[in-house]
């Protein structure tokens, strides 16, 4: 049902009188490895040399059986491979899409998987054959009032530390956000996978066991409690991560390598304890939130945000009527509408 009365009237009128709608999801715009920055390519944008496999759309993958669940929508191999080491710190900066919008969701976990690029280098590796192991899973913050994904919406990167015992070789790092804001219905979880190509140096020996790996698609089932979750809005958040368990060599090699720069707490926020070195939202020095508010507060634009984080940016055009129809339909499945301007 509609609750337009909760909108400040002048802003509502602005939104309904201007037009053209941008509906954002997101992609990985940038990765840093031990402080060195690598740019990603915008979906549909120019394909510059990169270590991040370029996806074709910011839209989510919507099925656990979709081959795009592997490395994201239609992602070809990337041309570069970046050096890294056991214990390297990786940060992943998300964008809501071309134009500098922020990541729009804040309900659900995020993950870091790895897979060796078997018998070749990662710039030549077809990831559909990959056997993935999990090095980090990040869910609710301590206390269970909100998810660490909120930090990404706030413009902070998602961080992970590579296992201290990781064996050398070329690997894909599969970083994935799962947005659960509509996962009270089966098959409505949104998957945002991304693959980054790295070459791990050193002479460590850590490796997963075969029962700790699985392919994508294949690691998830649509009935997994962490993917179909009628209680996802209950607090404190109770959550069961989907997919394989954290690889035991990751748990065994976990140490106090967290540099402690995270203002919102350290660790991975998961109930599995220890491990993983995921340090979500650590420093915030590469966030994209500030440019976003500037972009969306320009003359003739406004942004309508639902409590679950989905939002529209509305801009001035001539197609007023169709935009109004879309907006009404979109607002009608939320209980409360919040304007962010
Ligand atoms: Cu989205």
Q: What is the CATH topology descriptor of the largest domain?
A: Coagulation Factor XIII, Chain A, domain 1
Portion of residues within helices: 10-25%
Shape: globular
The count of domains is 2
Low-confidence segments: 1-20, 255-303, 313-341
Largest sheet: 6 strands, mixed
- Which CATH architecture of the largest domain? Distorted Sandwich
CATH C-level class of the largest domain is Mainly Beta
Query: Given the helix and strand composition, which structural class is it?
Result: alpha+beta
Task: Compute the number of strand runs.
Answer: 14
Question: Strands of the largest sheet, in order across it?
Answer: 4-10-9-6-7-11
- Secondary structure tally, helices: 5
Please tell me the overall pLDDT.
Answer: 78
Q: What portion of residues belong to β-strands?
A: 15-25%
Gyration radius, rounded: 20 Å
User: How far is the first residue's CA from the last residue's CA?
Assistant: 23 Å
Secondary-structure element order, as H and E? HEEEEEEEHEEEEHHEEHE
Give me the secondary-structure topology.
Blueprint (H helix, E strand, L loop, with lengths): L8 H9 L1 E5 L3 E7 L2 E4 L42 E3 L4 E7 L14 E7 L15 E7 L10 H5 L4 E4 L7 E11 L10 E11 L12 E2 L33 H6 L35 H8 L4 E5 L5 E5 L4 H12 L6 E3 L1
Parallel strand pairs: 4-10
Antiparallel strand pairs: 1-13, 2-3, 2-5, 5-8, 6-7, 6-9, 7-11, 9-10, 12-13, 12-14
Bound molecules: copper (II) ion.
The site of copper (II) ion (CU) has 6 residues, from loops.
Keywords, separated by commas or semicolons:
single chain, 341 residues, alpha+beta, Coagulation Factor XIII, Chain A, domain 1, 2 domains, 12% helix, 24% strand, globular, disordered N terminus, binds copper (II) ion
């Amino acid at each position: 049902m509609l609750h337009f009365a909760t909108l400040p009237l002048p802003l509502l009128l602005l939104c309904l009188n201007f037009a053209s709608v941008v509906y954002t999801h997101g992609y990985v715009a940038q990765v840093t490895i031990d402080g060195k920055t690598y740019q990603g390519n915008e979906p549909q944008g120019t394909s510059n040399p990169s270590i991040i496999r370029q996806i074709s759309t910011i839209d989510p993958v919507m099925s656990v059986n979709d081959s795009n669940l592997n490395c994201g929508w239609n992602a070809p191999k990337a041309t570069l491979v970046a050096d890294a080491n056991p214990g390297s710190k990786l940060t992943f900066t998300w964008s809501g899409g071309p134009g500098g919008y922020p990541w729009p969701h804040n309900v659900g976990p995020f993950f870091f998987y790895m897979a060796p690029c078997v018998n070749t280098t990662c710039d030549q590796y077809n990831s559909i054959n990959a056997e993935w192991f999990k090095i980090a899973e990040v869910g609710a913050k301590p206390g269970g009032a909100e998810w660490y994904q909120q930090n990404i919406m706030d413009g902070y990167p998602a961080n992970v530390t590579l296992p201290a015992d990781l064996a050398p070789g070329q690997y894909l790092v599969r970083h994935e956000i799962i947005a659960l804001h509509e996962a009270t219905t089966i098959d409505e979880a949104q998957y945002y996978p991304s693959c980054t190509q790295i070459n791990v140096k050193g002479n460590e020996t850590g490796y997963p066991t075969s029962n700790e790996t699985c392919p994508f698609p294949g690691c998830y089932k649509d009935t997994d409690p962490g993917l179909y979750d009628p209680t996802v809005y209950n607090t404190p958040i109770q959550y069961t991560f989907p997919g394989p368990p954290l690889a035991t060599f990751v748990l065994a090699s976990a140490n106090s390598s967290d540099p402690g720069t995270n203002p919102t707490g350290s660790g991975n926020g998961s109930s599995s304890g220890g491990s993983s070195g995921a340090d979500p939202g650590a420093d915030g020095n590469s966030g994209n939130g500030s440019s976003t508010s500037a972009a969306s507060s320009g003359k003739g634009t406004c942004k309508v945000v639902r409590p679950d984080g989905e939002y529209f940016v509305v801009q001035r055009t001539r197609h007023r009527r169709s935009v109004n129809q879309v907006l009404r339909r979109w607002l009608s499945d939320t209980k409360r509408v919040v304007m962010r301007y």
